[in-house]
Amino acid sequence: MNKTSKFLLVLLFFVIGNNSYGKSTVVPGYIITLTNDTVVGYIDFKEWKLNPKKVLFKNTETDKGRFYYPPGISEFGASDEIYKSATVDIDLSPHKTSQLRLTTEVELVIDTVFLRALITGEKGLYYLLDVRGKESFYISQNNKYVRLVHNRYLVEENGSKYPVSNNKYIGQLMLYLKNCKSINQVLSKSTYTLKSLVKSFNYYYECTNTTFDYQKEKPKVKVDLGTFAGVSFTNLKYTGEGYDELTNADFPLSTNIAAGIAGNLFLPRNLGRWSINNELMVASFSYSNTYQDFIHENRYINYETEIAYTYLKLNNMLRYNLPVGGTTIFFDLGFSNGLAISNINKKKKTSVFYDKETVEYFKAIERSRNHEQSLLFDIGCSYNRFSATIRYEVGNGMSMYSDLVSTTKRYYIFLAYIFF
Predict the structure, then answer these.
(1) Euclidean distance between the first and final Cα of the chain, in Å?
(2) pTM (2 d.p.)
(3) Residues with Cβ < 8 Å from 275, sequence gap 6 or more?
C-alpha cells in the first residue's frame, strides 16, 4: 500500500473515530417520572441498536440537559420509539453455538433496564439486546415484565454432542394470548426473533378485533438514486524484467470523461451515518508512447506502443456520512470490478541494422486480462440533491504476467445529482 493509500485510510478512521460518540441528534421527546408526571422536552436520540443504559433529557434544545438511568424514570420516548424502565430477569447463559454447555441450568440476574417497546396495549411485547448480542423478549403482565423463556444448550448422545432449544416461550404466549382461539397454530410455527414474535402479536390483535396502543412503524428502506459525471486522470505504470519498452516508458497522464449511475442504500438504526454506495460507471484511459532500445548508431530498435481500455465498472463502497450544518461530508471505502468493453493493445517494433529496416506488429501485452480489480477511496460533500466527490483508485491493470506488474492509479472529480 503506497503513502497516498495509507494517508486516506488514516484520515478516514480518524474522522470516524472522532465522531463515533457523536452519532446523535437532539429531537423532541418526553420522559415520565416515577410519580407518573409527563415532562416534554428534547431527547439526545441515538437510534440505539443496543438498549441504552442512560438517556440525556433536555428541557430546551440548547441546554446541557440531565442524564436519566432506568431506576430514575418510568419511561421515555422520541422519534417513534418508546423505552420502559423495567426490573427484569436477564439470562446470561451462552447463546452462541460454540459456547453452549452440557447443562439445562441458566444464569439469571435481576437488573433494571430500559426495554424497547415493540407493541403496547392489552398485550405488550418488549425487547432487550445486550452487549453480548443476545436478544431477549418480555411481556407485560400484572404490572410486571415477564421474560419469555428461550435458551439453548448441548446434549450428548452416543458420543455426539448437539444443540437443542428450550422453547418455553411458546407455552407462555399460548396462555398470554389465549383470547385468540387460533393463536396456538401461529405460535407453534414461531421463532424467537423480533420479526416472528411481532407477527404473532399482530395476528392476536386482528384475531380478537382489538387495537394496540402503540407499535413502531416498520423502518422504511432509504435509497438515494442518482447519476454522476466528471473527469478522470489515469497513470499507468509497469514494473518487471524483460519488458523495457513498457517498464522504461514514460506514459503521460491520461485525461478522460467518466460517468455513471449510483444507488446509496442507508443502513438501519444508525441515524443515516452508514450506507452502502453502489455504482455502475464507464471509465477509460488511452496511451501512446515511443521507446528506443539503442545499441549503436547503426543498430537500434524503436517501439511504438498504443494501449487504451474502456471499462464498465461496478463499484461497491461502504460510506460514512457526517452531517455538518446543512451539508454532509462523506467518506467511501470499497472495491471496484471493471470489465473491459473495448481495448487497443498493440505494439509496432521497428528494427534497424545499418541500412536494413524490419517492421513487426505485436500485441503490447500478449497475455492481457479484461477484468480489472481496484481499491477505492472517496471524500465528498453533498447539499440537498447535489454532491461533489474526489476519488482515488488503485487497480491491477491488464497484465496477466507474474513478471510484469501493471498498476493503474486514477484520480476522479465527480459532480452528482440525486433523482430521488
Answers:
(1) 37
(2) 0.71
(3) 264, 265, 266, 267, 318, 319, 321
